[in-house]
Structure formats: C-alpha cells, structure tokens
Amino acid sequence: MAIDAIVRRIPEPLRARLLTHRELLKFAVVGAITWFIDTGVVYAVKLTVLGEKPLTARLLGALIATIASYILNREWSFNTRGGRARSHEAALFFAISALGIGVTMIPQAISLYALDLRVPDVAPVTQAVANFISGQILGVLLAMAFRFWAFRRFVFPHDLREAELHSIQG
Q: What is the pTM of this model?
C-alpha cells in the first residue's frame, strides 16, 4: 500500500497534526534507525573486543550512528531545509553531533562513576542493565532533544519552501 493511501486513511485532525510535525516525526524515525545502529555496534564490540571498556564502546557506536544520521537527516528529515554550503553544513552537523555524543555519555558516566554501578561494586547484570538504561535510553533521549533543536537552529536554519514561496511572491 502506498504511503499516500495510508495517510488518507488517518482521521483529519490527526493527519493535520502529523503533517504539522512531519519534520519532527522524520527526525524521530531517523533517530530510531540510528539507535538500532548505535545499539548494535555498542553491544557487538562490548561482547567481543571492548568488554572492559563500556564508554569506549558507547563512543564507537555513537560515531558510526552519527555518520548514518547525517546522511538520513540531510536527505530525508531536513530535505526542505538548508541555506548553507554543504561542507559548512556537514562541519556544523558533526560539531553539534559531537556535543550530542557528550550529552549521550553523561547519564552513563554518572551511573558508572558517581553511582558506582559497575563491577566489582555490583553484579555484571546490574551494570549491564544500568548501562542500558543510562546510555541507551536516557542518554540517547537527551541527546536527541538537543540535536533536533540545534540542527534546526544552526545546521539547517532555513526552510527552503518558505524561501521559494517568498521569491515567487516577491
């Protein structure tokens, strides 16, 4: 079934709200995709070569997911926005994403080092659950909110549809 057919079946009040927030919804879908990429990388390397280094695993997962995020956000989520040279846009995207990686790591660092939820102070299962909740859930949600705001504000600042409309009217 085509996406247009699905959209037509959604009741009008909900459809209008979804269309109003389409950019945020697309960003959330990209976030979900990159969350799976991030989580897959984190656990693949933690269970193999970086078992004793959970923050290093977190950093590697975030870096790989960030590259995927740039491509998906540029081409889909914010495809109606722009206003910057591609190289400048990419530099800003990766700088903001680096800050986002820091935001992602804060809850897990607090869990590990301030709350001492790490082996040998707690059981390995307790550390694993605490790392998942603090890193994969809290950290990712905090970073997602920060990134959405910052990407719209600094990386993709201009709605190209509005600029096009003004040039046609002017």
A: 0.71
39-71 per-position pLDDT tens digit: 899 999 989 998 888 888 888 998 899 899 999
Which residue reads 């790591």 in tokens?
105
| Amino acid at the residue 78 | F
Within a domain: 17: no
Which residue matches tokens 């995709």?
Answer: 33
Give the number of other CB atoms < 10 A from CB of residue 149: 11
- 110-120 pLDDT, tens digit per residue, is 999 999 999 99
Domain hosting residue 86, numbered range: 22-169
For residue 97, is it within any domain? yes
Question: How many distinct structural domains can be found in the chain?
Answer: 1
DSSP track, the chain: --HHHHHHHS-HHHHHHHHHTHHHHHHHHHHHHHHHHHHHHHHHHHTTT-TT-HHHHHHHHHHHHHHHHHHHIIIIITTTEE-S-HHHHHHHHHHHHHHHHHHHHHHHHIIIIIS--STTTS-HHHHHHHHIIIIIIIIHHHHHHHHHHHIIIIIS-EEHHHHHHHHHH-
| Phi then psi dihedrals of residue 159, to 5 deg | -80, 110
